[in-house]
């Protein structure tokens, strides 16, 4: 597993918490808190774009 630096968990109103992490190679990771051993991974740029789209409300239909 890569050397991932994880941010503090983000928890919504429910019990669903996730963490965002990065590694020295420029990869970004998203994992359910407590399941950091099985993250989704992509580039930091892709993660940044995902967060911007979520903030813009483009994923509200998924919630």
UniProtKB/TrEMBL annotation:
It comes from the Bacteria. This is DUF397 domain-containing protein.
